[in-house]
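Changelog-linked ticket: pyridoxal-5'-phosphate example.
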Amino acid sequence: VKRYQALADDLEASIRKGVLRPGDRLPSVRTASTSRGVSASTVFQAYYLLEARGLVRARERSGYFVTEAARPLPPQPRQISQPAIASVRPEVDDLVFSILEAPVDPADVGLGSAFPTPLLYPFRQLGRALAAGAQDFDPTNVRDGMPPGNAQLLRHITARYHADGVPLGDGEIVVTNGALEALNLCLAALTRPGDSVIIECPSFYGALQSLERRGLQAVQVPTCPTRGIDIDALEVAIRRHKPKAAWLMTTFQNPLGCLMTPDDKRRLVGVLAHHGVPLIEDDVYQELFYGPQRPLPAKAYDEQGIVLHCSSFSKCLAPGYRVGWVAAGRHAAALRRQKLTLSILTAVPVQVGLARYLDQGGYERHLRRLRATLQKQRDAMGEVLCEHFPEGTEATRPQGGYFLWVKLPHGCDTLELHAQAAAHGIRFAPGPMFSATREFRDCLRLNYGREWTPATERAIATLGKLLRRPKLRVA
Ligand SMILES: Cc1ncc(COP(=O)(O)O)c(C=O)c1O
């Protein structure tokens, strides 16, 4: 970290803790330079950075002032995870299912769900397009939806890669039943039972379950809550364990929400290509960015066809429709065969219906609204956490998606908290669900994309109260 960044981080921490409040003036450049023992240009750079973060604004000839938008938020966790770089058999199914299958009352506050509220999706327009798609469906021509998929839908998917300048070979995309099928088909094409696969730590529990089902070994690699996987550690893991694939999320990782920088994505692809390890890139949150443009996937830097880029409409447009895809690089032919042997094709009327919705041109407007709502709710969740959770709580501040990763102070036990919260009708995802070795007992994932009501804030306040009980300590 450069000096000016460290200074900006320090000042941001003061703003987030409420030491510096909206309307307060930052010290003059000369004062800050003397008191911090840094050059005036370092102070200027730090103030510019804070301005870019929306936390301060310059007023002509008066200096820099904290903006109204700068709210108290929990500090971000910075500590990189430290799993042993070993090849382990994930055993998460029982834990994950015991949480996912627990009886849920419709009145519960569901902060553990993997989906935002259905109210954020254009189901009425989708329904009309689907009805028309079903009517258009020619049952004598089922081939229309056979792998690689419905031609019109494929054109829409391909156009989004082209718009970003991501190179795609002919026939690279295969339509699947959601991203999860795409990811599992990739595993099937690349691995045999007993092989090792690289994953992040923590990682999406669906990845852990998929490895467990196929009898694969997981190699968990240290991952930073803000920058993503540690590429040096990844290289060590590759040398040591000769993995047959890496299953990674480079954009808005689940559960951390982190986004790798373009340089890190490029380096990641370079390292994997150098060692001949294919990248299964799980990119289901790519459309839910809050910045000015869609972050490029690692696939954008792939010159050798080693990236199998998996995504879907499940999170951004049509939850429950089960339509996803993989852009499988040099493995496309193998993926088409896997798809044919596993499930033949993806329901044709649904493919046709989605293509019709996309033809109508309302998708971008829907996405803009969805992103704006999620960003607003991220900030609201951060504020209520800051108000109600114990001192020492840290939370990520994702630039997209809808998950916050929360690290609790003093070794609080989130499995115990989960059991107690359920009795109050509150659900969340405890940290051990995201680790092959059941670590992260002091962490939890919160979904801020659910309907935001007074009950949401009350639920956070209740969790905060439960956390102050002594029984919740691990040690
Ligand atoms: C990281 C990640 N990958 C894949 C999936 C599955 O996506 P789909 O619903 O399109 O199968 C999910 C859903 O929760 C997810 O969070």
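Closing comment: Example verified and attached. DSSP finds 15 helices and 17 strands in the chain. The radius of gyration is 23 Å.
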